[in-house]
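Hi L.,

You mentioned the student needs an example of a multi-chain input paired with its predicted structure. This one should do, with 266 residues in total across all chains.
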Amino acid sequence: MSSQQPLRRRTVREIVKAKGRQPLVMLTAYDAVMAQLLEESGVDMLLVGDSLGNVVLGHETTLPVTMTDMLRHTAAVVRGTRQALIVADMPFLSYQVSADEALRHAGALMAEAGAGAVKLEGGAELAPTVNRLVSAGIPVMGHIGLQPQSVNVTGYASRGKTDADAERLQDDALALAAAGCFALVLECVVPAVAARISQALTIPTIGIGSGEACDGQVLVINDLIGLSVRTPPSFVTPRADVASLIRQTVAGYVHDVKASLTAVGS
Ligand code: KIV
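Structure written out for the whole complex:
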């Protein structure tokens, strides 16, 4: 009998247990190849973010992303991986209309695409929906602070700058945790407020642009490795310049092919 343990995916229970013991790392992934590379690099969770819209599909915001998009890209990320917990974003208006619709859409991301959990943006107002999904066996990651699906109402400014806003964020976090979320993304929350929320919760917080006191961190992979034609958000320092590598490599190939054809023709 082999002494090697079979590979299996991280579970949401392991993610919750990591709080206070081990920092968690989540990155976005949108396709099978990148997902496999990120898993081989040791990430705990991969988020098939609806940032798919602006990062990969060429939209200005996340709003045009559809369930069809999320199902296809989540399935690809699942196919490329064997160990990471795959969290699928619920796209704009797939969960806000009613808890019944939210359940149907979250169920499709789990049953059809193979996600291990779903993520949705919003505060205490979503507690009944979270409760409905969790009761049906669907693990839910919450997302408060800057909520990209609401930028047309709120803009892109960071959150928690006033006492009232900080208090509201903490109330939202507690309500989502009580409703059954297993983890909570804090996006662009003032670091001191993110630290306070992280201490108040028994579930892990995963920060993005919210300082270092969260229980884990998440970034959009393209921002981390410089695979973009846009300026990255101010809180990210890219650790590579993959865009330049692609331009140089392809320009060299274009040059060589054209030179060889010129040589044949001369
Ligand atoms: O869609 C996404 O990539 C996200 C992360 C920024 C947390 O929600």
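You could point out the following to them. The domain at 12-240 is CATH 3.20.20.60 (TIM Barrel). Residues 28, 47, 49-51, 89, 143, 185, 187, 208, 218, 220 surround 3-methyl-2-oxobutanoic acid (CB under 6 Å).

Best wishes,
N.
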